[in-house]
């Protein structure tokens, strides 16, 4: 692909192309109106776009199935040896940049797939926000997994297995609940077994991405394109709340079971720094979706509205739980209150009887 892409690029424009294709794209709405623009795409340009799309997908696969395990392993070795060599630090920086670049490409691909009908232009501020968001999120996640695995080496396999199986089976569970027919139009030459293998590999990659960060591309097996094109704020909110709770729990277990090996580390400060780092990643994510997203004008609701609605749902659930608890307490105390009321009525009746008797004797 690289050789062919360079060959097409350097020979473009020398020979007149036999035919061109016309694509129609809509601009972002301005003052409530959208314009449709027609563009001629030559054969060479179309092939270059195909190669670029393939390179983007390959960078995502390489980042999360190659660089992410490599970064985790190198950091684990540094923790055990209590030493960070120059060569290992270079490898870790390159691995982290590779993962961040793959996550950035995943975000851009998700935007282009979801809004394929529009002419999308990503500004430098959006790239910067995505880079900061993914850097904080991935770096803190890898560090938390390494710290937990260094003191509880057996339990880390259970944590990784549960995360991986949960995210790998989630698209299949949703597909089974939707009762949609099995997708047959992925590739004409593939048999049913081949299609199943392709879908399993797709969910495998999806689980590998969600192990380390939020997957901007949500797999939906019932969709013809296998990708959900809706912006699900609730799913994203639940993911980040659960991931923050999981990171906090893993750090708490590391803090409880840490050995004398970590005497040179100020543990409370490290825990706070990691939690703040993950929250910084969430902050840059909110800034991106609120101000820098290239298609924010097409959102049915903004990030702030989605967060307010999520908080309202959580508040309603808490209030409902409190009301049920109060109702239970009142139901438990009601027999006691009835006995007290009966006792007080008996004393009032006896006092009235004694008063009536004294009045009659005086008369």
Automatic annotation (TrEMBL):
Its main location: membrane. The chain crosses the membrane at residues 86-104, 154-177, 197-217, 237-257, 269-291. Residues 335-363 are annotated as: Disordered. Pfam families: XK-related. Keywords: Membrane, Transmembrane, Transmembrane helix. InterPro entries: XK-rel, XK-related_adapter. One of its GO terms (cellular component) is plasma membrane. It is a multi-pass membrane protein. Residues 344-363 have a biased composition (Polar residues). It is found in: Membrane. Belongs to the XK family. This is XK-related protein. It comes from Origma solitaria.
């Amino acid at each position: 692909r690289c050789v062919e892409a360079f060959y097409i690029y350097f020979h473009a424009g020398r020979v007149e192309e036999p035919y061109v294709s016309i694509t129609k794209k809509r601009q972002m709405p301005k003052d409530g109106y959208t314009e449709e623009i027609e563009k001629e795409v030559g054969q060479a340009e179309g092939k270059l776009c195909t190669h670029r799309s393939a390179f983007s997908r390959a960078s995502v696969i390489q980042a999360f199935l190659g660089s992410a395990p490599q970064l985790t392993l190198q950091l684990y070795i540094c923790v055990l040896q209590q030493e960070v060599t120059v060569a290992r630090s270079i490898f870790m920086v390159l691995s982290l940049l590779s993962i961040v670049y793959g996550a950035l490409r995943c975000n851009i691909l998700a935007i282009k797939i979801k809004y394929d009908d529009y002419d999308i232009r990503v500004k430098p501020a959006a790239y910067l926000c995505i880079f900061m968001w993914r850097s904080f999120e991935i770096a803190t996640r890898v560090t938390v997994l390494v710290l937990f695995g260094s003191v509880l080496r057996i339990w880390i396999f259970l944590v990784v297995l549960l995360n991986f199986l949960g995210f790998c089976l989630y698209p299949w569970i949703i597909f089974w609940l939707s009762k949609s027919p099995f997708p047959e139009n992925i590739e004409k030459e593939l048999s049913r077994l081949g299609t199943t293998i392709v879908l399993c590999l797709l969910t495998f990659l999806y689980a590998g991405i969600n192990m380390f960060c939020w997957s901007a591309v949500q797999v939906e097996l019932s969709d013809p394109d296998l990708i959900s094109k809706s912006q699900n704020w609730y799913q994203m909110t639940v993911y980040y709340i659960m991931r923050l709770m999981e990171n906090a729990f893993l750090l708490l277990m590391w803090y409880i079971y840490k050995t004398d090996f970590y005497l040179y580390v100020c543990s409370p400060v490290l825990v706070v720094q990691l939690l703040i780092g993950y929250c910084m990643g969430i902050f840059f994510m909110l800034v991106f979706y609120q101000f820098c997203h290239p298609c924010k004008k097409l959102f049915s609701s903004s990030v702030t509205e989605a967060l307010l609605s999520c908080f309202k749902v959580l508040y309603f659930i808490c209030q409902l739980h409190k009301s049920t608890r109060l109702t239970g307490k009142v139901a438990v105390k009601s027999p006691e209150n009835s006995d007290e009321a009966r006792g007080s009525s008996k004393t009032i009746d006896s006092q009235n009887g004694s008063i009536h008797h004294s009045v009659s004797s005086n008369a």
